[in-house]
Amino acid sequence: MFRNHDPDAVLVSRADPANPLASYSKHAFRLDGSDWPSVEHYYQAMKFDDRALREQIRIAPHPAKAARIARRQRRRVRNGWDDVKEVYMTRATYTKCRTHTTVADALTATGERTIIETSQYDYYWGCGRDTRGRNVYGRLLTNVRQRLREEAARL
Asked: Quick one: which of 7, 52, 72, 137 has the most CB atoms within 10 Å?
């Protein structure tokens, strides 16, 4: 559980396209044979086995639209999605950082500070209204940050 947070924590909203650390930020990258306009596009598309639906999500004009398309198709989400969704979000976030040095720099510039996804409504990816959420997105960013540092130390 995620409860009271460090007042020096880095606050991130996944849905803020202006924040380079957000899954909605429009930092395109190539992964799994396709070009993705944002992490959110990739994440939402990977919920489905249907290639046509994935493509519809991939070409959505905005990450929020990609999420809306996926929500409307929730009955078609592939089996076992909950078991792998963090892996897909992590792969996309890491690939975005490796593609855009400005994003990687923004992430590593957070130092050792705790990263908190500030969604009031999402108790899985975010901290939730009462800060008791799991903050999985914040922990995911922390893990990617650590991996980027380890790679930089080997150079």
From this structure: 137
Which residues, 6+ apart, have CB-to-CB distance to 84 below 8 Å? Answer: none
Q: How confident is the model at residue 6, as a pLDDT?
A: 76
Q: How far apart are the first and last CA of the chain?
A: 36
Beta carbons within 10 angstroms of residue 82's beta carbon: 9
Tokens of 40: 């959110």
Which pLDDT value is given to residue 2?
Answer: 47
* SS percent in the chain: helix, strand, coil, step 5: 50, 10, 45
pLDDT averaged over consecutive 10-residue blocks of the chain (155 residues)? 70 96 98 98 98 98 98 98 98 98 98 96 95 96 98 92
For the chain, what is the total number of helices (H) and then of strands (E)? 6, 4
